Fold these 2 entries.
Entry 1:
Amino acid sequence: MYPRDELRELQRLKQENRKLFDQDPNNEARLVEIRDRLKHNYERSQEMFESINNIGMSDSVADINAIIQHLLDVGEGLTLETLRNHPSTIKGPLGRLRVGSTWKILEDGTRYLTTINFYPTKGAET
């Protein structure tokens, strides 16, 4: 989850006791990390979860396992030419969800998922 309480505490400390806040340079770095990078990641993950819900899937063990299996299957079929934003589709009870996954092949040949994006499709295609 997004660390809202930690963000509020750091902002409060910065406003109410700037001298104490400035004594630890990690405070400003953490504040920027929470406010910028972590907030973006949290919002992005919430949007992707909403996309999953819109096709009739949830955060149930069965649905999560179906998504994981889908990604494992995609990973098996990769080539050097299809590592970046590899397109695929997940089918749910209420429609389909386009998936863009980016992969890396490690030195030992293992396929490593680095990024995943879900793109809602228009309408409830089945």
Note: The chain has four helices and three strands.
Entry 2:
Amino acid sequence: MKVFFTSSFSGKKNYQKNYDTIIESIRSNDAEVISLEAQSYSDLLNEEFINNHPHNIVHYTYIQQGIQQADAVIIEISYDSFQMGHEATLALVYDKPLLCVSCNKDYSTTITHPKFQAVHYQNLDELKDLVNEFIIEVKNKTPKRFTMLLPEDVMNLLDKYHKKTGVPRSEYIRNLIRKDLNSWSNPTE
């Protein structure tokens, strides 16, 4: 799992311990951190691009690519800024689960979006717990890929079903599994 983390550069003086706590929490959950707090531009961008473009373009491209590659986004917004708001919007545009944390203000009613969470925390232990909970939640919702070999006659049936209903083959199989698993967990049915 990859987690993009961003924060205000201007807030580093006051909030570096908070930033470090978030990075440590991400790593403690066996997730890869994508962040300029833990990387350099060359970790996502090639040297030619970095050397041939102005810093603001390099920085923005890193942010965009980092968010696109991530499974989830965490933003520390105790030092709120227009840039942080824009990066939060990018995360939602790219359909990424987003956690915004602040020790100064509760932003939980600021944005209404199914992938958006905002939490006001009191101390670094609480921040660590919030990040851990978010990562576990995202991991549990992230689909896992596996390969399944099916005989030709089954594939033909799935293709016919798809053409008739428009339901993708994989979704049909997932629905069958869910139905079967639900009947196991609800013995009265």
Note: The chain has seven helices and five strands.
